[in-house]
Design goal:
Elements (H helix, E strand, L loop, with lengths): L2 H27 L5 H102 L4 H27 L1
Length: 168
């Protein structure tokens, strides 16, 4: 209950108290009042009390409605905040899963590149060994030159492929 409503109620109660005091004073002065007059006074007093009760009831109902509306607004804000919180949590989980998938894909790619580099290194060593082997067999100069040219050409191709793989 806010201060205005409390003040209204207090003022009404003071007015009622004043009226009651006035009524008592009137009753003392009028010892000769008839029974019919007393009934009329009681009826007026009852009506006045009922009016005050009705005013209090209306004021309290208004205050209750105001509080209820405020609570409804707060409840809607809480639901909205919960919804936002849940949405943020879901986005966080999705982002975390995407990052894990990206990291796994990157590891797999790095492993594939490493295997390819290893394969080309072995192939290069085999070619070098073959060149040495040809030199050792003392083949004719012409055959040796052709073999060396062919193997050098192949070596350059493999070097370019290896270079391209390293860039990836």
């Amino acid at each position: 209950m806010d201060d205005k409503e409390a003040k209204v109620i207090i003022d009404m109660l003071k007015e009622l108290q004043g009226n009651m005091d006035s009524f008592r004073a009137d009753m003392k002065e009028m010892l000769t009042v008839t029974k019919a007059d007393l009934k009329e006074m009681c009826k007026d007093l009852r009506t006045y009390i009922q009016e005050i009760r009705e005013d209090l009831r209306v004021n309290m109902q208004t205050r209750f409605d105001t509080i209820e509306n405020s609570l409804d607004k707060v409840e809607k804000r809480v639901e909205s905040d919960e919804s936002k919180h849940n949405s943020i949590g879901q986005q966080f989980e999705e982002t975390e899963k995407a990052l894990q998938l990206q990291a796994r894909t990157q590891r797999e790619t790095e492993n594939a590149v490493q295997r390819t580099q290893d394969f080309f290194k072995i192939t290069l060593m085999d070619i070098k060994q073959e060149i040495l082997s040809l030199k050792m067999e003392q083949v004719s100069h012409k055959v040796l030159n052709e073999s060396v040219r062919y193997l050098t050409h192949k070596l350059q191709e493999i070097d370019m492929e290896l270079h391209a793989m390293r860039k990836k």
